[in-house]
Give the backbone structure.
Amino acid sequence: MLEPDLAEPVHDADPFPLFDRLRAAGPVLHSERHRGWLALSHEAVVDGLRAPWLSSDRLPTFERIASARPAAFKVVVDVLRGWMVFRDPPEHTTLREPVRRAFTPRRVADLRGAIEDIADELLDAAPAGANAF
């Protein structure tokens, strides 16, 4: 069985060979190393995001990791507590409601030009050959 370590630095520069090998084994694989399922196709990701029986609550995992990390990591976990993408209903719904009308498809489409301009400015300001990873 293929059991990759997704965190290996060798995959940072070019992750595509790894994901090609993983996808050849199937659209969804279980990883003992990462203690979870790897969704490896667009359809599998969409299915997972829409499945009401799958949890989005990642906070217990982050809390477990934070217990063995420097104190600054615990600050990150505290920030993530307020992120709706890491919460299940009803907490997710409560966090989403105040911003729901601000992020309709039409409003996001209206922001596209400004977002592209900002991205272009940031990319132009980056040093040549810079790699954030």
Notes: The beta strands are 28-31, 36-39. The radius of gyration is 19 Å. DSSP finds seven helices and two strands in the chain. The mean pLDDT is 86.
